[in-house]
């Protein structure tokens, strides 16, 4: 690309000779005529630099136009990709229905055009309390035209009839009655769940008011230490010291609340 150049200075012409001033005519004529060659060269330099700078400006304008065209093309491509992503089938659904927490067949209606398929493991989480009110099951049917979704629940936490749920893909319930849940950030432990801690430094807080028979599992599958906070409850009749117990890498346990202590 052509470089932009500096415009040279043109010498200032002296006062030209005049017949009205015959006394200074000759010296002024000599001075005026003597500087004309330098003035002419300076004028040529200005013209040449103007031509060079005009070429440089045109090249930059062409390049800017090309960049603008490329940016416009990329913007259109990004918009098309966003539209495609927005309209693409997804394995995420919501419903405002009331569902009873418990095992067995559940029928609900989510958005149409989703990508749920029979055999997928899903998690139904209450919108208002997704940690402590969850159901884990397998999709048995989904109608993409109507949004009708059928799930057979085999594990759950919480109780009662709850309005408003989200449905996402999740791990199928593990053997032994505990559902598997990956935990990558500080979280409250939920009964009926085996919590797989996947990030170092995470704190898993046990329920402050567990019910008799609540069973909770955890393991530290991260690259460092994790913490379990027992929320003031004893473990096998002994108060942990400190209450926030360090769980080393690969440390694991499954505990059940018997009404007075975790055992």
- Average per-residue pLDDT, rounded, comes to 87
How big a fraction of the residues is strand?
Answer: 25-35%
CATH topology of the largest domain: Jelly Rolls
Distance between the termini: 78 Å
How many helical stretches?
Answer: 1
Order of helices and strands: HEEEEEEEEEEEEEE
Region (Disordered): 1-26
Question: What can you tell me about this protein's structure?
Answer:
- With 263 residues, the chain is of the alpha/beta class.
- It has 3 domains: 88 residues; 82 residues, Thrombin, subunit H, CATH 2.40.10.170; 90 residues, Sandwich (Jelly Rolls).
- It has 1 helix and 14 strands, in the order αββββββββββββββ.
- Strands 1-6-3-4-5-2 form a 6-stranded antiparallel sheet, with no helix packed on it. Strands 7-9-11-14 form a 4-stranded mixed sheet, with no helix packed on it. Strands 8-10-12-13 form a 4-stranded mixed sheet, with no helix packed on it.
- The two termini are 78 Å apart.
Describe this protein with a few key phrases.
about 260 residues, alpha/beta, Jelly Rolls, 3 domains, six-stranded antiparallel β-sheet, four-stranded mixed β-sheet, 1 helix, about 30% strand
What does this entry show, briefly?
Residues 1-26 are annotated as: Disordered. The chain is an alpha/beta fold and 263 residues long.
Secondary-structure map with pairings?
Elements: H1 22-87, E1 92-100, E2 104-109, E3 121-126, E4 134-142, E5 148-157, E6 161-169, E7 179-183, E8 187-188, E9 193-197, E10 203-205, E11 215-220, E12 226-229, E13 244-247, E14 252-256
Parallel strand pairs: 7-9, 8-10, 9-11, 10-12
Antiparallel strand pairs: 1-6, 2-5, 3-4, 3-6, 4-5, 11-14, 12-13
